[in-house]
Amino acid sequence: MARAGGGYGGFSDRAIDIRVDDSQDPFGELRRLLGIAMVNDDWNRGWTAFTEKRFADARRWQERAAERAGAQPEVLPEVLYDLAVIRLADGDRPGAEAALAKAVSLNPKLAEQAKVDNDLAGLHPAGK
Fold first, then answer.
1. What is the DSSP letter of 21?
2. Under CATH, what is the fold of the domain 38-127?
3. Where are the domains of the chain?
4. Number of C-alpha atoms within 13 angstroms, CB side, residue 95?
5. Of residues 48, 39, 67, the one with CA closest to residue 8
6. Residue 34: how many CB atoms within 10 A of its CB?
7. pLDDT of 57
């Protein structure tokens, strides 16, 4: 799928590129990969908006990425982690805490990252 500036970081127009060359179930694999690609596209749009300090737009895209990621467990924890960052930036501390708690429950390694992540400083004990 192509969209002007739709690639990672806006550096290309290739928003989604999927291949299923040697799968035994190419349509099932295509469906799975398309699902992940759609999550990644929303996630990329959300993070781009976040870096541009357009927090309401970032939240809209990241909420959608999180909703879609429910069917893609391999990316859900990291999507929720970034949703916590974006919710906090958008002024929703309780929502950020909930997203972070869910992310950490799915991937406990994210707890250590969250402790030192400046984007989550508002959730750190000193940031309260």
1. T
2. 1.25.40
3. 38-127
4. 14
5. 48
6. 14
7. 98
